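agent: user wants the structure for Acidobacterial duplicated orphan permease from Proteiniphilum saccharofermentans. delegating to structure tool.
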Amino acid sequence: MPNLKTYLKFLSRNKLYTFVSIVGFSISLMFVIILGLYVKQELSTDDFQENKDRIFLMTHDKQAPFGNTIAQYVRDNAPEVESFARIHSRSLAIGQKGNDKVEAQALFADSTFFRIFSFPLIEGDPERVLEARKSVVITRTFAAKIFGSENPVGKSLFISDEEHTITGIMEDMPVNSILLKADFVANYNSITIFWDDQILETPNNFGFNMFFLTRPGTDLPSKAPMLLKLFKEEFWYFRDGYSDDLEFMPLKEAYFKAERSGFNDLHLNSRSTITIYMAIAILVLVIALLNYINLTVAQAGFRGKESAIKKLLGSSKANLVSQLLAESLLITTITFLAGLLLAFLAEPFFNNVLNTTLDLAHQFTPSMIAASILFLLIVSFLAGIIPALIISNFNPLEVVKGTFSRKVKSSYSKGLIIFQYTVATALLICAIFIQQQSVFLINYDMGYNREGILEISNTGLGVKQIDGFKSKLLGIPGVELVSFSSGTPLNGGENYSYTDNEQHYSFQEFRIDSAFLQIYGITIEPTGITPSKNIFYWLNRSGYKAVEVDSVTQTFRPWGNENQVEIAGIFSDFKIRNLYRDYSQLRIRWRLWNEEPQHIIVKMTPGTDYYATAKRVEKEYIQYTEGELFNARFVDEGIQQNYESVLKMSSIMSAFTLLTIIIMVMGVFAMSLYLIRQKEKEIALRKINGATEEEVMLLLNRDSLKRVAIAFVIACPVAYYVMTKWFEDFSYKIELSWWVFVVAGLAVLLLTLVSVSYMTWKAARANPVESLKGE
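agent: tool returned. relaying tokens verbatim.
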């Protein structure tokens, strides 16, 4: 207890040291706790699946979706397959008869779903719960939302006006699964609500994910080459060379190996992103530890007399070390609890940034509490052992001579401070480049208009309702134009791939009306012919150059057969979906009167309240479709959503860089104060010998400038390498401009000077007589 009282007195006398140590460490640990739990959650994705080592996702050319009948074909030709489950996810409107519909996330799956995946059922037999064509299993939360305290089993739900029967209740799906978190699971055959029955009998509509459960002890991935050979004989897509790859990804790997644009209806992450977050968490912890160690070592000289007396009175080295480690444990425990409190307060912010659900309260299971205590002890030991060894190894006579503090300073402080400067500079460089790339992607000229355009997914409007609904929308103040199309630049068109004269083509096709061209500002350059048939095409410049065009008749073969179709015009290239993949071949034709549009596009008058107008459009749509889900987004917001992972990384990097700089500034400020205190007598002697205040300030700032310069030289190549590797994932990217390195270096230099200049100025103006009293 006497030692504890002595330490608490020391903390109260050294308020700056106490403040910087506790605040800096607490903020750092908050960051470490949040990122650590997020990384743990992501790395444990689908660990709860009992069959996780036997489940494989079939992919081709870094894409997952296949045509429906291919799953059965694989099972028939690969005895390693025990069963399979096809998966399709989408948002839709659902409700009880006569009641308002609510938005829900649906998952359509084969009847084998609950036998393959380990999602616990509260009610229902996993072998039979999805057997019936119109059976539905709803989650516990969704059941309470729709039915309250009633038992919903046996009751009806209407999906797109078709009645389905609830056959079971399941626990809510966890967020750390490759499958999108759904409100209900419906029998797979119910997808005919959205397509005709033919969709279940064709291998050609590549839009469905396929998971295979293998027999124990078998090796399905090794059969991929054999199956690919069969695919090339059986399915035109592989036979004609559009895909030359087949892979069975283990469930765990699929979550991290999936490409950004090739995997639909799945919850995915990037292993490189998780690795970066892990590195950030470790780096934050290291910086916090080094900052604490540096400050504690700097204070060692001022605690020397206390320790010297103890040593002269017979205290052993082990006693001194144990005392200092106990002090470290006290500080670390306080900062850990403060960091935990900050983590709870910051949880909503990080959930929003990371687009996840981190429920910290439920994360602290007995095993996690044990792990936290172990983490606390390790951090405490690492934070305390170096200062303890330094202080316990000193010679008491050095304290009397006043040389101990100078030895401590010269031996340990410089390297630690340079490390902090290096990390801060490198992080600032990376943060600026990532922010620039985010802005570049979001503001890239996609080649079409994007302001004030609302795109609505049409799920409830038939062809006979189009004219009436269009009139309704055009009557809303602020609505300028309305278009009905299949395909938009933001969502892409329908893919048409074919072979013509041994050349492969892959066109994105848009079926439009006249308002579409006006809304997106697409200008058609006529080819000089007057179309003689109802169906003709406009091609983008790249597509026109790629295909074989009859220069006289301006015709080409759009499906790879002998049917010739006229090209009435050419339009400039524009980007579709996002910049991760380049779709160079585009074609547009009029939407025929009997073709149901997939999208409704509303162009709003500039200067009006877009969101208020969108609300009125939503109201009209829901009334006109009798409660169908209104699934819409503005084009400019949709473009931002396409780069969610980059924006997330930018936010995390910015927050981490700010945290590092705050810790660095606090540490540099405190360290400078202690180092200046050690130089008080030297400064006094120089002033007595004629040194000016400017010369003294230059002397005191010179060491800081040297450290910043050394850190800059180290940080630049490190940041350049990291950014070069990160930019490899982007086809469209910014240049690594030299001025960013300079700006980051100057920023760290300026922050350093601001941190130390007041104290150096104060030291330079001090009365030398006061500093030399007692000498």
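agent: one observation worth passing along. The first helix runs from residue 2 to 13.
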